[in-house]
């Protein structure tokens, strides 16, 4: 039992990171209706910015803020230059998929050009210590991830529910044409959404990099977990991303431990989850059901 | 403009038009036939790889270009074809090209399995599922390392006569013709298979079945109400597309003789998709052009650049893809067609090409 709890808690700690990545994906999906396959690479890129600032001697918290700012710029730029000109993702899904794949390749290659192909090491933000709760050891790093996620969710909640800017962003997400008619600068808000998503990804990257080593393929597996999280939670639900993240984290930590066939591939439960949800409840747990008029 | 009408018109226009139509093809085949004698052996080996890529892209094009279902997972199907071939030859002593046929059959059924969710999932969501398949595949190979060899690789061997006794030896495609080196023989063998697959695909697309594929892509509801069994068409297209990708993978296995999970990552899936869109989705010859472009890019042009900027290859490829989608979403073939149409309308003639005309 203690063993089980231990593994479960590790999973929940990982789940917090998947949820962070999921938040970014949801913000983009809500505003542009697009599944951003380059989200992971955007996060990887800005995590490298954090690493650079940190290794230049800046304190870690400042480096993270700098990385988020850098990530924001990358996200906003990517939206302006590459994503917006292609057009509506639901009318031209192939073109949009190709553009995000192009971004994936481009950002990955750019990171290799700038930072090389060797893995860098990054210190855990909350140190290597751990606390023992009910006889189960939990690393501070995992607790820190959950807290950071909580702060981000709170900030998003305040932004979307209690500011004019957030209201405008919600208007764009629900009907961009009408939003534009009442004078909301739609393109600028979409750009803001992309920037925010990339900034959130930075935090996810900072939490993951100490475990996996900071390399250019940091996020490629993690992204699939993030997608599994938002598929379960519903593509357009922030709450869903959080709940989905925790469930996916727990499943992919617990199942490989007890089911030998998943031993070397914690990704498999996540994959089965994506498939099952899309087949049987495509709107996820918290998502809005998509209804199309014939 | 349907195929029948254009054939009629070209017949009426006389021999000059006919020569213009057939000439380029003859020229192309002459070039293809001369190539292996003009280039050193390592280039010919690269051409063989490009052909396996072209075959996989042809399969993906039937699915994505003509049937409108996006798959970012064809690298995995390519890999299943390759590993099926390798395991059948090494463990069960199946003859080389018998294994290719078996790989196609296996991939057909795997494709149907992967395609089942596609009945309910469309567009971006299907891309997501297939992306997950592609990411999962190399991990599966590691998990079942007992039969796949895991990251240590799978050496494809078959019992061969060696110094008077039967031994397990690495497979080789030996030339039965005295004047042809092994790599040249392989080139022509692969070329023949590639041409057959492309011609069969063209015939399929020009047939009633092909038109139903396009109808499902363009408007599912309209297709359904005009009596096309939409589900059956989508599932079978997925299977067929997977089978073709599997043949590509199988030839890759025969070509390489050894297989590693690192060859079948998400990157391979991306390259196959790149070949399709660069050449031009929904044109038959497009994926072949795309595969050649990709091959020239990664095996020739990039190799000329200094080592230090090798990673720039991904950056350039990424930027090119985005530019392509912004400027010429129809790829090379689409671009040529719209130029032709432009030219024709400026001359005051009939509009030269219809977007859905099949090359």
Automatic annotation (TrEMBL), chain A:
Membrane topology label: Multi-pass membrane protein
What are the GO MF terms of this UniProt record? Answer: transmembrane transporter activity
Provide the family line.
Answer: Belongs to the binding-protein-dependent transport system permease family. LivHM subfamily.
Q: Where in the cell is it found?
A: Cell membrane
> GO cellular component annotations, sorted alphabetically?
plasma membrane
**Stretches that traverse the bilayer:** 6-27, 60-82, 94-118, 138-160, 189-209, 221-249, 261-280
> Mostly located where?
membrane
Which terms under GO biological process does the entry name? amino acid transport
Keywords for this entry? Amino-acid transport, Cell membrane, Membrane, Transmembrane, Transmembrane helix, Transport
Q: What is this protein called?
A: Unannotated protein
UniProtKB/TrEMBL annotation, chain B:
What residue ranges are annotated as transmembrane?
Answer: 18-38, 44-63, 70-90, 96-116, 123-141, 187-205, 235-254, 266-294, 314-336
Query: Which GO terms label this protein's molecular function in UniProt?
Result: branched-chain amino acid transmembrane transporter activity
Pfam families registered for this protein in UniProt: BPD_transp_2
Q: Where in the cell is it found?
A: Cell membrane
CDD domains per UniProt: TM_PBP1_LivM_like
By its UniProt entry, which InterPro entries does this protein fall under? ABC_transp_permease, LivM-like
Q: What is its main location?
A: membrane
Instruction: Please give the GO cellular component terms listed in this UniProt entry.
Output: plasma membrane
Membrane-topology descriptor: Multi-pass membrane protein
What keywords would UniProt list here?
Answer: Cell membrane, Membrane, Transmembrane, Transmembrane helix
Q: What is this protein called?
A: Unannotated protein
* Organism in which the protein naturally occurs: freshwater metagenome
Native organism taxonomy: unclassified sequences, metagenomes, ecological metagenomes
């Amino acid at each position: 039992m203690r063993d089980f709890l231990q593994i479960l808690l590790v999973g929940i700690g990982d789940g917090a990171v998947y949820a962070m990545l999921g938040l970014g994906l949801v913000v983009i999906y809500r505003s542009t209706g697009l599944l951003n396959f380059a989200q992971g690479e955007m996060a990887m890129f800005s995590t490298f910015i954090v690493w650079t600032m940190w290794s230049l001697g800046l304190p870690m918290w400042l480096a993270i803020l700098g990385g988020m700012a850098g990530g924001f710029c990358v996200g906003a730029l990517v939206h302006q230059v590459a994503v917006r000109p292609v057009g509506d993702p639901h009318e031209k899904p192939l073109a949009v998929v190709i553009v995000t794949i192009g971004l994936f390749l481009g950002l990955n290659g750019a990171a290799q050009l700038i930072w090389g192909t060797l893995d860098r090491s990054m210190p855990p933000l909350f140190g290597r210590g751990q606390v023992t709760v009910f006889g189960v050891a939990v690393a501070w790093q995992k607790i820190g991830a959950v807290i950071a996620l909580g702060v981000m969710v709170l900030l998003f909640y305040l932004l979307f529910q209690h500011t004019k800017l957030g209201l405008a962003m919600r208007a764009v997400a629900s009907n961009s044409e009408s939003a534009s008619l009442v004078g909301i600068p739609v393109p600028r808000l979409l750009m803001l959404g992309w920037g925010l998503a990339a900034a959130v990804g930075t935090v996810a990257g900072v939490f993951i990099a100490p475990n996996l080593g900071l390399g250019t393929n940091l996020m490629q597996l993690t992204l699939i977990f993030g997608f599994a999280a938002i598929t379960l939670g519903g593509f357009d639900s922030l709450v869903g991303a959080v709940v989905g993240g925790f469930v996916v984290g727990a499943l992919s930590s617990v199942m490989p431990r007890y089911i030998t066939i998943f031993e070397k591939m914690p990704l498999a439960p996540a994959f089965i989850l994506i498939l099952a949800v899309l087949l049987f409840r495509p709107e996820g747990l918290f998502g809005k059901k998509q209804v199309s008029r014939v | 403009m349907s195929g029948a009408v254009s054939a009629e018109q070209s017949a009426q226009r006389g021999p000059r038009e006919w020569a213009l139509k057939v000439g380029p093809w003859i020229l192309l085949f002459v070039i293809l036939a001369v190539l292996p004698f003009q280039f050193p052996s390592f280039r010919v080996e690269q051409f063989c790889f490009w052909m396996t890529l072209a075959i996989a892209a042809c399969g993906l094009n039937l699915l994505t270009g003509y049937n409108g279902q996006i798959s970012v997972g064809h690298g995995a199907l390519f890999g299943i074809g390759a590993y099926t071939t390798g395991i059948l030859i090494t463990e069960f002593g199946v003859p080389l090209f018998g294994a290719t046929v078996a790989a196609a059959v296996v991939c057909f059924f795997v494709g149907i399995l992967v395609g089942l969710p596609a009945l309910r999932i469309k567009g971006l969501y299907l891309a997501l599922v297939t992306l997950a398949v592609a990411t999962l595949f190399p991990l599966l190979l590691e998990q079942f390392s007992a039969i796949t060899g895991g990251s240590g690789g799978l050496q494809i061997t078959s019992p061969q006569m060696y110094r008077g006794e039967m031994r397990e030896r690495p497979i080789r495609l030996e030339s039965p013709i005295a004047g042809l080196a092994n790599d040249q023989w392989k080139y022509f063998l692969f070329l023949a298979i590639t041409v057959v697959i492309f011609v069969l695909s063209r015939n399929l697309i020009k047939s009633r079945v092909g038109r139903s594929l396009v109808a499902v892509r363009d408007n599912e509801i309209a297709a359904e109400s005009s009596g096309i069994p939409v589900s059956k068409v989508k599932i079978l297209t997925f299977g067929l597309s997977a089978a073709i990708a599997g043949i590509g993978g199988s030839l890759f296995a025969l070509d390489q003789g050894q297989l590693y999970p690192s060859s079948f990552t998400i990157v391979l899936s991306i390259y196959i998709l790149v070949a399709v869109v660069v050449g031009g989705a929904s044109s038959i010859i497009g994926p072949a052009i795309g595969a050649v472009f990709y091959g020239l890019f990664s095996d020739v042009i990039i190799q000329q650049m200094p080592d230090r900027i090798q990673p720039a290859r991904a950056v350039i490829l990424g930027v090119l893809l985005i530019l392509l989608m912004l400027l010429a979403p129809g790829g090379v073939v689409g671009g040529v067609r719209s130029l032709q149409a432009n030219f024709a309308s400026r001359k005051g003639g009939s509009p030269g090409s219809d977007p859905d005309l099949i090359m």
